[in-house]
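Long-time lurker, first post. I've been practising inverse folding by hand and with some scripts of my own, and I keep getting stuck on stretches where the structure tokens seem ambiguous. Below is the full token string for one chain I'm working on. Before anyone asks, I'm not after the true native sequence, just a reasonable design that respects the backbone. If someone could post their per-position residues I'd love to compare against what I wrote down in my notebook.
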């Protein structure tokens, strides 16, 4: 029940932002979301005292591509990644003797500039595309439908493990339930609210994004398993941390953005 209540509150707040927030306000909300995700990422990987002291600066560097995307220009987001890598490199060079494992510190920080920072920036980039709000709503329906369907079907009927070495709790039955829920949800929402978007296109996009969401979910499971934590945080009762809630969304957002950008969307 706690998981359901938390999910409904988060979903309502996110839907309100998608439908009614001006692009600038939405971009600032994504910056806050990314800052929380970066904090959880840093807490998983930077546990040594010297590394933990770096965490606030890591969040600042990670927010560079996210803030760069607020205006809707992907070039500024990429410039933010380059600036963040430059800052991370300089920090590692001039503080080399402080870190117990400088190479791991550098590699972990560089990956953090991409995940979750650059991936989250694509949420803001999406809202600036034609019909961007509609596509963001449909992306929400896909990820929430897929996650919810997989969780409830997998919990009740899951027997065959999907990827036991990475995430023992996920099953093929849950995967199928998530896919069916995502496809049905997208068709329903598209029919009710976005009649101008082609149905076959909706189904194709929903299918692709569901697969990508599963990969994003498993990717975060690898990070948690590698750092020995069950959840990325404890901010969301019944769900864990921010990264636990948006892991599917993070990878699906840029895939949808480039599908639309390269002329497949209308």
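-- Answer (accepted) --
I ran through it position by position. Result:
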């Amino acid at each position: 029940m706690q998981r359901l209540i938390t999910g409904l509150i988060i979903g309502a707040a996110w839907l309100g932002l998608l439908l009614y927030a001006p692009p600038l306000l939405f971009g600032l909300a994504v910056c806050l979301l990314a800052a929380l995700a970066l904090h959880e990422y840093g807490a998983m990987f930077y546990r040594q005292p010297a590394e933990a002291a770096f965490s606030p600066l890591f969040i600042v560097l990670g927010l560079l591509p996210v803030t760069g995307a607020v205006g809707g220009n992907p070039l500024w987001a990429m410039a933010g990644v380059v600036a963040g890598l430059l800052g991370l490199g300089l920090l590692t060079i001039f503080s080399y003797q402080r870190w117990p494992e400088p190479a791991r510190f550098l590699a972990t920080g560089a990956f953090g500039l991409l995940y979750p920072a650059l991936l989250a920036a694509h949420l803001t980039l999406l809202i600036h595309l034609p019909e961007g709000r509609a596509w963001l709503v449909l992306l929400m329906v896909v990820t929430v439908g897929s996650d919810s369907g997989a969780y409830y079907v997998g919990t009740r009927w899951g027997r065959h493990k999907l990827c036991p070495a990475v995430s023992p709790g996920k099953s093929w039955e849950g995967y199928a339930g998530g896919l069916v829920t995502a496809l049905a949800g997208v068709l329903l929402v598209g029919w009710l609210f976005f009649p101008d978007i082609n149905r076959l296109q909706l189904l194709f996009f929903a299918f692709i994004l569901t697969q990508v969401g599963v990969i994003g979910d498993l990717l975060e499971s690898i990070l948690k398993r590698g750092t020995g934590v069950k959840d990325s945080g404890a901010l969301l009762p019944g769900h864990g941390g921010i990264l636990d809630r948006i892991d599917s969304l993070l990878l699906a957002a840029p895939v949808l953005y480039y599908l639309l950008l390269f002329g497949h969307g209308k």
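A couple of notes from the structure itself: The chain has ten helices and two strands. Strands lie at 161-163, 167-171. Happy to go over any region you disagree with.
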